[in-house]
TrEMBL record:
This is UPF0340 protein I6N95_23800. Pfam families: DUF436. Belongs to the UPF0340 family.
């Protein structure tokens, strides 16, 4: 895998999705990613730490410049717990759980995030504004209601299928209500 191509694709994908989602300072961006799928393998079978490091480095750089928090979802072996900065967990009152991600339980991106973040912790659940799902890892449980599909221009990252979700406020009221 050409890592320079992966870097460029990851950056373009992230910028496209946060632009379409109209992401703002303070928003939370969740990443679900199978490095195995990015490499052309089967989810959970061939984790690549090298791929995880590239993807996390790019996302941290893109999102930090915009004041957007990154939450990195682990695999089902960790109940899809997420790596976040302790600052975010404390600010949002998130429950911190005791676990360290590994390649076999959490995945390459979770491990890379844990190594890259300044003060990483794992949380069990989050309500994010936007996210990308690389390799069909199922991030929907971590996107706030009402989740809306985003159609990224780029539908593959490496060889992995990519989907994305944004969110909007709930429309409440009845027939007399008006919405912006």
């Amino acid at each position: 895998m050409d890592l320079s191509v992966l870097r460029a694709e990851t950056e373009a994908l992230a910028i496209d999705v946060i632009t379409q989602a109209d992401s703002q300072v303070g928003d939370i961006f969740v990443l679900g990613c199978s490095s195995s799928e990015v490499m052309g393998g089967v989810i959970g079978q061939n984790s690549s730490q090298e791929v995880g490091v590239v993807i996390i480095k790019v996302l941290v750089d893109v999102l930090q410049k915009r004041g957007i928090y990154l939450a990195v979802q682990g695999c089902e072996h960790l109940n899809r717990a997420l790596v976040v900065e302790r600052e975010l967990a404390l600010e949002k009152g998130l429950e911190i759980v005791s676990v360290l991600p590994t390649l076999d339980a959490g995945g390459a991106c979770s491990v890379a995030a844990f190594e890259r973040f300044e003060d990483p912790v794992e949380v069990e659940f989050i309500v994010a504004n936007v996210g990308i799902d690389v390799g069909d890892t199922a991030i929907g449980m971590h996107i706030k209601h009402v989740a809306i599909p985003i159609r990224p221009k780029q539908r593959l990252l490496g060889k992995a299928h990519v989907t994305a979700l944004g969110s909007r406020p709930k429309l409440i009221g009845g027939s007399r209500s008006k919405y912006a």
